[in-house]
Amino acid sequence: MNSVYSLSDKQSMICVQASLLYEALTARLETIYDRLVDQIEPGGVREFENHFNNWISVFLFFSDQTQRYFSPIVKPEQSLSLQDLNFDEGKTCISNLDLINELGMDEMTVDIIPLVQDILNVVADEIGKTQLIPRTKRHLQRGLLRLKTKIVDYGDVLHTITFPLIQTSSIESDVDARSGFLQDQDADEKDWVIEWMRESLSETGILALESILDGISRNN
Fold first, then answer.
1. What is the rounded CA–CA span in Å between residue 121 and residue 141?
2. pLDDT tens-digit map of 134-160
3. pTM score, two decimals?
4. Which of 65, 94, 198, 213 is most buried per CB count within 10 Å?
């Protein structure tokens, strides 16, 4: 999680929570890949499918939340070109906002979905089988590698463009960041994503998550 973010304002609160959820997504995807690679004997189709489907559910929640929280702050009608991005002493200077349309959450999600579907198609071909044969395992590994690469690109957009833009924007979202970026208000179990994060993050990440949740609770 990027240490430049604090819990002192709405924009920072949104960025902190989004950054930690992204960290959990990348960590769990790495775990799914490593388990597949490390299998000496052919592994179960159902086990892989369950873990990957859970990852997809959280990723789609993440994409929805970033759109919901960020879109009111990032105004698409303003103009931006690549020349408007200047990197000076490690800081990003952004004078306009249209690049988020070109490299932002919506398009990044659209780029990721076909990669996810390719993996699901491989799994679907194995329906009824209990084991992953070596050929299928190799196909899944290649699909996961492509997905991991795209997720890294997604994170680059978040941390180098979107978060600095949110941090420096004078426009505030009507959505109250303290109401819980990590909570699924449409689900019966609103904290299901938080519980998934606790299972996915490192010990350091879990401590950061609990600190964030404590800060949200104290400020509500």
1. 13
2. 888 899 999 999 999 999 998 988 888
3. 0.79
4. 65
